[in-house]
Amino acid sequence: MSPQETKQLKLNRIHKALLSLLADYPLSDITVSTLCRNAGVSRTYYYRNYKSMQEIIARHQEMAIKSYLRILPHAAHMDFAQFMTAYFQLMQRQSTETTLLINAGLTNTLIKTFRTVYLFLLEQKIINPSTKRQRNQYFASFIAGAVISIQIQWLSEGMKETPAEMGRILNSIFIEV
């Protein structure tokens, strides 16, 4: 197993252990020792690689979104509606996990993660900014908060719209205005 695969495996294990603990305990009650024991990793590993438990979630979410986008047929370049459709497809698959994170009070971690991925996609020219507004330094923060807020509403209302409908809705809100 390559070092990258080992790193990925450990991230997956510690993330899974954290989600399992979050299902039963508030984040503030979860100790590093308990997390490491449940994940089968050392405390040294945790402290060497993470500043907080929120960072575990953020890194795993970023990896999941980027990995998912890479396997899409149009991943080399996509417009905003395609990006939002792909994002909501992934969030539909991860609805239980995302709901758990929201209920644990980790909405801000989801917002930061979305912002990081959005900026990465712009930097890699996977998403081309179609408006001057999208190039504004604060737009990534604005859109991250708005998308996560919409995602929370969509999840709480039972995901009635399809991911493609959500892609069109968000495109009309952010781009076509």
UniProtKB/TrEMBL annotation:
The chain crosses the membrane at residues 138-156. Residues 31-50 bind DNA. The keyword Metal-binding does not apply. SUPFAM superfamilies: Homeodomain-like (SSF46689). Keywords: DNA-binding, Membrane, Transmembrane, Transmembrane helix. InterPro entries: Homeodomain-like_sf, HTH-type_Tx_Regulator, HTH_TetR, TetR_C_Firmicutes. GO terms for molecular function: DNA binding. Residues 8-68 form the HTH tetR-type domain. This is TetR family transcriptional regulator. The keyword Nucleotide-binding does not apply. It comes from Liquorilactobacillus hordei.
